[in-house]
Specification:
273 residues; alpha/beta; 6-stranded parallel sheet
Length: 273
């Protein structure tokens, strides 16, 4: 049986010691291959355009262009984007997610956690550190340092403060919402509850490729870039405003792929093919 191809990763960080440490860590995993390195934003984009990696692991603050600013351009290469930073400020977290990042970690994470995060975002799931989870929850409740994700202009402001360019179609935009199919609504509801594609497929009794198709169509209709943005959009536009586990993020430090919920929210009704 042929072994699956390794996950191809580009790493970007302007601190040589951190860059070499991340490269060494990723290279130690048999299922991950580092195909490029960069020390500033523009070279990260150029490297991704040439190498076409599966995942780009990028620092949030770099010379030339920040990790937030280059995230949309990195996604254009077909890569999933995992932002890693020494900062856990709400404005960096919200700016990165609004720009389309698939996850946000801090550099103090356990090495195994970083490796698993790369695997998770490559699989199409989302990963947030404890600090990032708290920032998202605060934004959903209208708290934190920004009114944040609920309004497009606030998401843009968060990105601007963090030095990045944020798409106008942010997760909580109040613009006209295009019609979604019932199955697209079902998939979005489960994405918002933190389920992975495989878990959603099991929940709805469909193939995982079907889940990916519905999610892709929903993202395109809503002009969103990632499942994180999709989860935030659902929380703001569909889910009932209920408290989150008495104010505590569930399973702190675990990726959303482990069943972490941003809020209880309604579960889709009916299980149809």
């Amino acid at each position: 049986m042929t072994a699956p191809a390794p996950i191809r990763v580009v790493v970007a960080d302007d601190h040589p010691a951190v860059l070499s440490g991340l490269v060494a860590l990723l290279s130690s995993a048999p299922d991950i291959e580092v195909v490029g390195q960069a020390s500033d934003g523009e070279s990260a984009v150029r490297t991704a355009q040439v190498q076409r990696p599966d995942v780009v692991l990028t620092d949030v603050r770099m010379p030339g262009a920040t990790g937030i600013e280059i995230t949309p351009r990195l996604r254009e290469t077909g890569a999933n984007v995992l932002v890693i930073s020494g900062f856990d400020l709400d404005e960096f977290v919200l700016g990165a997610l609004a720009a389309g990042a698939d996850g946000y970690l801090v550099k103090t994470e356990d090495p195994d956690r970083i490796l698993q995060a790369v695997r998770d975002v490559h699989r199409g799931d989302s990963v947030l550190s404890v600090a990032a989870t708290k920032a998202v929850v605060a934004a959903l409740r209208g708290g934190g340092h920004t009114a944040g994700i609920p309004q497009a202009e606030e998401a843009e402001a968060a990105g601007a403060r963090a030095g990045g360019a944020v798409p106008v179609a942010s997760a909580g935009s109040s613009a006209h919402v295009p019609s979604l199919t019932r199955r697209e609504e079902d998939v979005l509801a489960l994405v918002a509850q933190g389920l992975s594609n495989q878990q959603i497929a099991s929940e709805l009794f469909v193939e995982i490729t079907t889940v990916k198709t519905h999610l892709s169509h929903a993202l395109a209709k809503l002009q969103l870039d990632s499942r994180v943005q999709a989860a935030l959009w659902w929380q703001q536009n569909r889910a009932s405003p209920q408290p989150l586990n008495s104010g505590q993020p569930p399973n702190p430090g675990q990726p959303l792929t482990q069943g972490q919920q941003l809020s209880p929210g309604p579960r889709p009704s009916g299980r149809r093919r």
